[in-house]
């Protein structure tokens, strides 16, 4: 895997939106953060643009991103926000210059499209907090982003909650080594069968998601399994599975059709026949503590009954 050059003070970082619209006011905290690191932020034409829910139409979003890909002065592209829309313009992009002069592509959620597509091209990317609401995230969220961009070594380690049913019954101890891949479960599911789909064999897979019905989490996990994406993993890391919904409300009326399992239990049931290590509550995803993950880098994952570490 190619690793883009690490940043240094004075480098330029482009801010664009490939998905949902965002205002210039909303990215001001991110601009201030970049400047505090000695970097030069450049706003793309999609910041402030609007086409229904999108940051401009598909053509504008593709053109804006392409210009930043091809601009040799830009050393990283920081996606401003997620939502939905990146998949609508991914096939309009030409990555030939990017492969000659790789740069850091930063974001998560809908930006999983880029992480997966660019992984198939053999370049490392950065799964990390986007510009929106970065000021409301933890210091570790911001600091791991900075360290990853500047090439400073760091690891992620956390203790398991003592009374957590997830950690007590679902965690599977062990050690795994392999390239780190993955991202948003819904996006991974949507990319199956496309040129952007992942080959997960021998890799550590990271999953996170937001605002999904539990039965749909099961549907997506079954799809990954049937596509062979879960059988030969080196390890599995599950981050925030946030604001999940059960099927106890339909058309405004209460129903008696709960799925009966948490998102974590659904995921574990899907992979319980395999032997690789599995952890939950990893500090990444749609949560306040959203630490940066270098996708495509060779990583070491250690899981025991009390602690998880990723190096």
Quick structural summary:
The chain has 311 residues and is α/β, with parallel strands linked by helices.
Describe the 3D structure.
This protein is α/β, with parallel strands linked by helices. The protein has 2 domains: 12-150, Murein tetrapeptidase LD-carboxypeptidase, N-terminal domain (Rossmann fold, 3-Layer(aba) Sandwich), CATH 3.40.50.10740; 156-310, Glucose Oxidase, domain 1. The chain has helices at residues 28-36, 58-70, 96-100, 112-121, 139-150, 165-169, 185-191, 214-226, 263-271; strands spanning 12-16, 40-43, 74-79, 104-107, 125-127, 156-159, 174-184, 204-210, 235-242, 249-250, 253-254, 278-279, 293-295, 298-303, 307-310. The protein has a 7-stranded mixed beta sheet with strand order 6-15-14-7-8-9-12. Strands 2-1-3-4-5-13 form a 6-stranded mixed beta sheet, sandwiched between helices.
- Supply Rg: 19 Å
**From the coordinates shown, what is the CATH architecture of the largest domain?**
3-Layer(bba) Sandwich
Q: For the residues shown, what is the average pLDDT?
A: 94
Any idea what the shape is? globular
Strand neighbour order, sheet with most strands? 6-15-14-7-8-9-12
Sketch the major β-sheet: 7 strands, mixed
| Strands, count | 15
| Helix/strand/pairing category | alpha/beta
CATH topology of the largest domain: Glucose Oxidase, domain 1
Number of domains: 2
CATH class of the largest domain, anyone? Answer: Alpha Beta
- Per CATH, the superfamily of the largest domain is LD-carboxypeptidase A C-terminal domain-like
Distance between the termini: 17 Å
Q: Give the uncertain stretches in residue-range form.
A: none
């Amino acid at each position: 895997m190619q690793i883009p050059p690490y940043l240094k003070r004075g480098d330029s970082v482009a801010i664009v939106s490939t998905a949902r619209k965002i205002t210039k006011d909303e990215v001001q905290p991110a601009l201030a953060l970049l400047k505090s690191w000695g970097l030069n932020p450049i706003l793309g034409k999609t910041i402030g643009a609007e086409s229904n829910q999108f940051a401009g139409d598909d053509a504008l979003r593709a053109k804006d991103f392409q210009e930043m890909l091809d601009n040799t002065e830009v050393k990283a592209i920081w996606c401003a926000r997620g939502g939905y829309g990146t998949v609508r313009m991914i096939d309009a992009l030409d990555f030939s210059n990017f492969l000659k002069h790789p740069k850091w592509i930063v974001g998560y959620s809908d930006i999983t499209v880029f992480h997966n597509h660019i992984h198939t091209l053999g370049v490392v990317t950065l799964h990390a907090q986007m510009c929106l609401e970065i000021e409301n995230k933890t210091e570790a969220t911001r600091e791991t982003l900075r360290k990853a961009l500047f090439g400073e070594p760091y690891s992620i380690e956390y203790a398991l909650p003592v009374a957590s049913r997830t950690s007590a019954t679902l965690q599977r101890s062990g050690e795994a080594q392999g390239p780190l891949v993955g991202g948003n479960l819904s996006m991974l599911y949507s990319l199956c069968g496309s040129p952007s789909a992942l080959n997960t064999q021998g890799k550590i897979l990271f999953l996170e998601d937001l605002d999904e019905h539990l039965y749909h989490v099961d549907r997506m996990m079954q799809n990954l399994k049937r596509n062979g994406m879960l059988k030969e993993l080196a390890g599995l890391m599950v981050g925030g599975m946030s604001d999940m919904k059960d099927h106890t409300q339909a058309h405004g009326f209460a129903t008696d059709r709960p799925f009966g399992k948490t998102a974590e239990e659904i995921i574990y049931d899907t992979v319980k026949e395999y032997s690789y290590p599995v952890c939950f509550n990893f500090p990444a995803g749609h949560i306040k503590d959203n630490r940066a993950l270098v996708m495509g880098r060779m990583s070491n994952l250690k899981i025991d009954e009390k602690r998880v570490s990723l190096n």
